[in-house]
Amino acid sequence: MNNLIFEQLLNSLQFGIMLFLIASGLTLIFGVMNFVNLAHGSFFMIGAYLAAWIAGATGSFWLGLAGALPLTALLGCALEWLIFRHLYKKSHMVHVLATFAFILIFNDAVRMLWGAQPLPLNMPAMFAGPVILFGLPYSSFRLLIMVVGIAVAVGLYLAINKTRIGMWVRAGSHNLEMVTAMGINIRLLFRLVFSAGLVLAALAGIMLGPLVAVQAGMGDDVLILAFVVVVIGGIGSVAGAAIGALIVGVVDTLGRGLLPQLFALFLDADAAASVGPAVGSMLIYLVMIVVLFWRPSGLFPART
Predict the structure, then answer these.
(1) 141-172 in b/e burial notation, b at 16+ Cβ within 10 A?
(2) 27-85 pLDDT, tens digit each
(3) What pairs with residue 119 in β-bridges?
(4) Cα dihedral sign for 35, 36, 42, 44?
(5) Is the C-alpha dihedral spanning 148, 32, 78, 119 positive or negative?
(6) 3-state SS, residue 214
(7) Of 59, 26, 53, which Cα lies nearest the Cα of 41?
(8) Please, are residues 300 and 239 in contact by the beta-carbon 8 Å criterion?
(9) How far is residue 101's CA from residue 147's CA, in Å, rounded to a whole number?
(10) With 60 as the cut, is the pLDDT of residue 303 above it?
(11) Residue of 241, 254, 242 whose CA lies nearest to 284
(12) DSSP conformation letters of 246-279
C-alpha cells in the first residue's frame, strides 16, 4: 500500500507539471493577448507528431525534440500572421468558433499526413529504466518530465519578471495602448508570446508522447484539463497556472488511483471498481466549483 501511495503521489506531481506546461502557454496567450485559443491542445498533438516523425527517421528522441519545437514555433508564427491576428479585436465567441474549427482541421490533417494508426515515440535509452527513490523504484523518464517542467517554470518566472521583454509583456497585458505609445512593436511581441505558448504545449506533448499513444485528438482531453487549471489558478497568471496544475494533477491522479480502494472498504468489489473511477474523474470539477464559489476569479487572477 505504501508503494502504491508513493508511486501515485509522484505520478500526480508529474501529471501536474505536464499540465502546467500546457496551461502556462494557454494562460500566457489569454492573459497578454485576451485571445481564447481552443486549438492550443492541437499544438500539444502536433508537437508529439513532429517529434515522433523526426525520431522515427533519425532514431533519436533528442533530435525529434530539437526538431519539433522550432517547427511548431514556425507553424504558430505563420498561423498568427495569416489568421489569428485578424481575430484579436473580435469577441471571445468568434475566437472560440474559429479556433474550434482548427481543432477539426488539425485532427484530419495529421490523419492525412501520418495515417489513422498511432505513431510510436520511444523514450531515450538512458531514461528507459527505473531509478531508486527512497528505496523504491520509479520511472526515470517521469522524473525527467518533472525536471523539465520545473526548469520551464523557473525560466518563465525569470523571463517574465527579470527581463525587458517580460516587462513589456506584463505592461501589454494591462495597458496595450500605453505599450504601443512607447514605441514597442506590439504585433511582434504578440507573435513571440503566441509562439512561445504553442511551444510550451508542444513540449508537453513531446514529453508525454512516450507514455501515451501519439494519435489524432490526443490534445482534446488535455485541453479541457488545461482550462480547468487556468480557471482554478486565475486567468492570465502563470503562478496561478502552476498552483492550479499541481492541484488538478494531485486531485485527479490520487482520486482515480486510490478512490476505488477506498470504496472497496465498504462496497463490494464490482461496485467499488465502477463507482471509484467515476467519482475520481469528477473530483477536479468539484474542486473547481469550490474554488469559483470561494474566489470567482481564481486563486491568483492577473486579469479581473
Answers:
(1) bbbbbbebbeebbeebeeebeeeeeeebbebb
(2) 888 877 788 888 888 999 999 999 999 999 999 999 999 999 999 999 999 998 999 88
(3) 214
(4) positive
(5) positive
(6) strand
(7) 26
(8) yes
(9) 34
(10) no
(11) 254
(12) HHHHHHHHHHHHHHHHHHTTTS-HHHHHHHHHHH
Lowest mean pLDDT among 9-18, 69-78, 183-192: 183-192
Residue 214's DSSP bridge partners are 119
d(CA 109, CA 96): 20
In DSSP notation, 128-195 reads: SSEEEETTEEEEHHHHHHHHHHHHHHHHHHHHHHHSHHHHHHHHHHH-HHHHHHTT--HHHHHHHHHH
The pLDDT confidence band at residue 253, using thresholds 50, 70 and 90, is: confident
Task: Give me the count of residues in the chain.
Answer: 304
Lowest mean pLDDT among 96-105, 253-262, 289-298: 253-262
DSSP 211: G
Q: Which residues pair with 132 in a beta bridge?
A: 137
Determine contact, residues 138/131, Cβ cutoff 8 Å: yes
3-state SS of the chain: helix, strand, coil percent to 5? 80, 5, 20
Closest CA to 19 of 119, 190, 152: 152
Cβ-proximal residues to 221 (8 Å cutoff; 6+ apart), any chain: none
With the CA atoms of 153, 236, 221 and 59 taken in that order, what torsion angle do they form, in degrees rounded to the nearest 10?
-40
| pTM for the predicted model, two decimal places | 0.87
Q: How many CB atoms lie within 10 A of CB 282?
A: 11
- Name residues whose C-beta falls within 8 Å of residue 229's C-beta, 6 or more positions apart in sequence: 19, 20, 22, 23, 241, 244, 245, 248
- CA distance linking residue 10 with residue 137, whole number of Å: 11
* Band (237; pLDDT cuts 50, 70, 90): confident
C-alpha cell at 213: 499513444
